[in-house]
Amino acid sequence: MVRDSGLEEMLHEDLAALEVEPSRLAQKPMFGGLCYMVDGHMLCACREEGAMYRVGRAHDAQALALPDTSRMLHNSREYPGWVWLTGDSLSDDKTRARLTAWALDTVRALPPKE
């Protein structure tokens, strides 16, 4: 798997637009891509084929109703609350912003990791 520096920059800009405090945000190479974490919790990630968002169960149905989204699968297991964004919608600022905001709401509700 190959990292996509253009997509990484778009996600970074999406997080900056939502005013995520830099001291709470971390980036970590993971799963063949780049993972963005807030307070130690995975928020979103990207690699060549798309972006993954932790939208939480509360936003799962809304996220899956958006174009070019699908539930995250790993070893044939579905992960509710986690979605992939692929295709043309990766370039849609509004779609990425909506998914990022839902992911941020989800992660901010969790206690910080030590």
Percentage of residues in helical conformation: 25-40%
Largest sheet: 6 strands, antiparallel
Mean pLDDT: 93
Strand fraction band? 25-35%
Strand order of the largest sheet: 1-2-3-4-6-5
Radius of gyration: 13 Å
List low-confidence stretches. Answer: none
Category from helices, strands and their pairing: alpha+beta
Order of helices and strands: HEEEEHEEH
Count of alpha/pi helices: 3
What's the number of extended β-strand segments? 6
What would you call the shape?
Answer: globular
Distance between the termini: 30 Å
Q: How does this structure look, described?
A:
By secondary structure, the chain is α+β, with helices and mostly antiparallel strands. It has helices spanning 5-17, 60-64, 93-108, and strands at residues 25-30, 33-38, 41-47, 50-54, 69-74, 77-85. The protein has a 6-stranded antiparallel β-sheet with strand order 1-2-3-4-6-5. A hairpin with a 2-residue loop joins β2 and β3. The mean pLDDT is 93.
